[in-house]
Write a structure and sequence with these properties.
Blueprint (H helix, E strand, L loop, with lengths): L1 E5 L11 H5 L3 E5 L3 H6 L6 E4 L6 H9 L3 E4 L8 H11 L4 E5 L6 H16 L3 E5 L3 E6 L5 E4 L5 E7 L3 E8 L5 E7 L8 E2 L5 E4 L5 E7 L1
Parallel strand pairs: 1-2, 1-5, 2-3, 3-4, 5-6
Antiparallel strand pairs: 6-7, 7-14, 8-13, 9-12, 9-14, 10-11, 10-13
Length: 214
Amino acid sequence: MRYIIVSNGRISDYSFYKNIFNTSDYIICADGGAKHLIEMNVIPNVIIGDLDSIDKEHKQIYIEKKVKFYKFPSDKDATDTELALDFALSNKPSEIILLGAIGSRMDHSIANITLLKKILDNGIRGKVINENNEIHMLNDEFNEIILYGEENDYISIIPLSYKVKGITILGAKFPLKDAEIPIGSSLGISNEFNNDGVRIKIKEGLLLVIKARD
């Protein structure tokens, strides 16, 4: 099953997300993410968080729609997005997609991106999507991915562990074979797609993979 979590980050082009919701099985709203769902006319299955960011008007709409709420104290040890993720993980879906996870608050944006590791640690595939980025993570177990790009798309890899070993990239303008890249290197930024999909595989480490467009 495909779970979608909608958070309170920046979403500008609501039409961009239509197909994503059309292929979802379960939708979780993380508190203030309700404003985005209202704009997209999407009814979530549940709303989770301390409920300090959701507008009263939006909350009332979803109460009338009989959406279930899970309220947490304001003083808590996890963000609303992580609370929503924990709920999703407890249901053991096959995939989790985070929307509205990137915004003007860099602390929240980075924290949400690193939640991809928590998803992988539970044996589940995950990704963060916005209008300009599709973000994945690879580790020793989920160590391979194929991505397809369009004109003006880029593909970048960023090591998150001390070193990522055995990196192989096929189908890109700048291929790699069994390479090793340390954290802090920009070697993997702004590679380009050829005509077919790009295959990325690693042997050891933690690697962020981003399909991006300007």
